[in-house]
Amino acid sequence: MTPTEAIRAEALRLGFDAVRFTEALLPEAARERLDAFVDSGAHGGMGWMETRREQRAQPRALWPEAVSVIALGLNYGPDYDPLASLEQRHRATISAYAQGRDYHDVVKKRLKALGQWMAREFRGQPLKVFVDTAPVMEKPLAAQAGLGWQGKHTNLVSRSHGSWLFLGEIYTTLALEPDAPESDHCGSCRACLDACPTAAFPAPYRLDARRCISYLTIEHHGPIPKEFRRAMGNRIYGCDDCLAVCPWNKFARAAAEMQFAPRAEIAPRLAELAGLDDAAFRARFAGSPIKRIGRNRFIRNVLIAIGNSGDTALLPAARVLCEDGDPVVAEAARWALEQLDP
Ligand code: B12
Ligand code: SF4
Ligand code: SF4
Which band of pLDDT confidence, cut at 50, 70 and 90, is reported for residue 89? Predict the structure, then answer.
């Protein structure tokens, strides 16, 4: 077995769904696009996109010894329609990626297990493992390795898993035979661009994060800008609209990883969520990615959904939160009241 064959076999044994190899070198175009994204301010308040830009743009700027990158994918395909709850306006829509256990933990654990196996197998060859939070351009690297292509919604689309792959990488000093990149199979389709409720794509393959509901509900601090509140509907954590409409999802399968299965009700009632105090929020979302936005940002989002619900039974929940100690929550509660009882 060649080293790549052995690593692929071990990664699949550990439960990864896709494994490909590429050189630890990104083309200049990736840097130029990252520069264009950040220089135009499209990253909004994600200051960390700016601070370690050099390392993000080029693997060897992060780790000069890196020779190859192992690009790995873990399927989190939902076994239900992630857009079905959008019509249930007294309930919350939570992105499919956040229904189960935090993928950072699940993917990191697998990456570490593969890293330990490699350390034994290829003695003396250092490596580093990454998922999401490091300054690594995960999608361009995965596309270059042939795991899929960056669709017009900017995420990686796979011929076998559609839009539903989490990405992780191993940077290694091993010289591994690179795989061929995947070509773009979007063609004339523009379903994702047309599905976006907030018109967050200024052009195909380009996202303005400041308009994206995923950014607004997860990354954005402070009040949600008024122009996007109506369009958020009942999406309280992330957004799946552009991913879910992709025709390549017809080849996707439901996640085999049980830890990604919904841990509770897929679309919980807004009334129940609005009542969570800090302790109850932390207990309910322990081990979930939702925990990281904290109770106040979460309740802010729930209140926008309450304002959009048209359900006057939710008026008492909004009224109570007008007195909340957090000014952003209190302002969102007043907005919700105005929508329900103008
Ligand atoms: C910042 C970030 C966000 C931001 C910005 C998203 C974005 N598109 O940049 C926000 C908070 C909005 C976000 C949202 C989501 N995210 Co996010 N996010 C990231 C993060 C940390 C960095 C991404 C980044 O570098 N963006 C900067 C821009 C410049 O990079 P880019 O999108 O690759 O841009 C390229 C294109 O614009 C392209 N391009 C430009 N012009 C052209 C023209 C052509 C012809 C082509 C081919 C390409 C092209 O070139 C650029 C650079 O190569 C990554 C993890 C990581 N470390 O990479 C996760 C990551 C991208 N997110 C992920 C997920 C799952 C999501 C959500 C689906 C979550 C949700 N359901 O709410 C949404 C999807 C929203 C969307 N349509 O992108 C996954 C995506 C997995 C996949 N299969 O692709 C990642 C990889 C995390 C992971 N490890 O799994 N995210
Ligand atoms: S995640 Fe939602 S808001 Fe963001 S670009 Fe996709 S469809 Fe638009
Ligand atoms: S919905 Fe269409 S345009 Fe968008 S990523 Fe999928 S194939 Fe490409």
Answer: very high
Average pLDDT along the chain: 97
Closest CA to 302 of 195, 184, 217: 217
List pocket residues of ligand 3, CB cut-off 6 Å.
151-153, 157, 186, 189-192, 245-248
Ligand 3 atom closest to 190 (CA): 3
Please tell me the pTM assigned to this model: 0.97
Which ligand is closest to the CA of 154, given by its number? 1
Catalytic residue among 17, 35, 79, 132: 132
Establish whether residue 229 lines the binding site of ligand 1, counting it when its CB lies within 6 angstroms of any ligand atom: no
Question: Is residue 326 flagged as an active site residue?
Answer: no
Instruction: Give me the residue spans of the domains in the chain.
Output: 3-78+98-172, 269-342
DSSP calls for 256-269: S-GGGS-SS-SS-B
Which regions of the chain does DSSP assign to beta strands (E)? 18-23, 68-75, 93-94, 127-130, 149-150, 156-157, 165-172, 235-237
- 103-121 and 3-13 helices, crossing angle to 10°: 140
User: What's the CATH architecture for 269-342?
Assistant: Alpha Horseshoe (1.25)
Which atom from ligand 2 is nearest to the alpha carbon of 243? 6
